[in-house]
Amino acid sequence: MIPLELIRVRYYVRNGRSAILTQFSVILIYAITDFKCQEQISLNDMLCDIKKSSDGFSLNSSFYVQLSHMKSLNRLSIMRPFESSELQIALSIDLLKELECKENMAMQMTWLYKA
């Protein structure tokens, strides 16, 4: 969590009068989950949190999904340190089955529609 600091700005109006504005200095950003990111989208900039959550749950394909939508890794920022072993977790059996099914479908479509 990042604390927000109040900013005070003096705003001058006509006749020598002024007002002090107090506000939070906030920049509007767009946040997206990696699940939503699986749609057709490409990103120029990304601030990525790849550390495993405190409850220990993390999809090992999540980081791949996030990175696969970057136009360039030059504009990638990682929020906090993480263990490299978190990126080397074996894929689940369900995910392996789904990947195999998609590969078979791709081969069948290639065979059916080859020119």
Strand content: 15-25%
Helical content band: 10-25%
Low-confidence stretches: none
- What overall form do the CA principal axes indicate? elongated
- Rg, nearest Å: 23 Å
How many beta-strand segments?
A: 4
**Rounded mean pLDDT score:** 76
List the helices and strands and how they pair.
Layout (H helix, E strand, L loop, with lengths): L5 E7 L5 E7 L21 E3 L13 H6 L8 E3 L14 H21 L2
Parallel strand pairs: 3-4
Antiparallel strand pairs: 1-2
Descriptive report:
This protein starts with 5 loop residues before the first strand and ends with a helix. It is built from two helices and four strands, in the order βββαβα. It has one domain. The strands form two sheets. The protein has a two-stranded antiparallel ribbon. With 115 residues, it is an alpha+beta fold. The model has no long low-confidence stretch (mean pLDDT 76).
Short description:
This protein has one domain (6-113). Helix content is 23%, strand content 17%. It is built from two helices and four strands.
List the main descriptive attributes of the protein structure presented here:
elongated, two-stranded antiparallel ribbon, alpha+beta, 2 helices, two-stranded parallel ribbon, 23% helix, 115 residues
